[in-house]
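Sequence dictates fold. Next comes a concrete instance:
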Amino acid sequence: QVQLVESGGGAVRPGGSLRLSCTASGYNLDAYDIGWFRQAPGKEREGVSAISSSDDSTYYSDYVKGRFTISRDSAKNTVYLQMNSMEPEDTAVYYCAADPVPLMSAGSWSIGEIYDYWGQGTQVTVSS
C-alpha cells in the first residue's frame, strides 16, 4: 500500500508562491504517474496537474497553465507542484495521487478514478 504524504501548504497573499511536495516511503515514485488535485469547499474535486512515469510528460488544467509547474526529484523521491502568481480561487485542499499503471494521457490525467493511491491533503489558502 503506497502512502503518499503532501506538505508545503499554508497561507499566502495573492500573487505569492508556494511549493507543494508529495513523497512516499518505501516506494519509488518514479514508477508511478502522479497527479495533483484540489477541492475547494462546496466544489467538486478537480485535476490541477500531472506527470507521467514513462517520459515525464506534464499536464495542466487551463486555469493553472503558465502559473503552476509540476516536477520530479528522483533523488528525493518527491514530486513537486510549484505554484506562482497565486489567486484567491486557488484556495483549496490539495491532494497528490499515484497511478501504478503508466497509461497517462492528455485525456485521462485529470480523471480521479484512474489513481489508486491518495494522500491526506494539504490546505492552501490565498487571501489578502
Notes: The mean pLDDT is 95. The radius of gyration is 13 Å. Residues 76 and 124 are 23 Å apart (CA to CA).
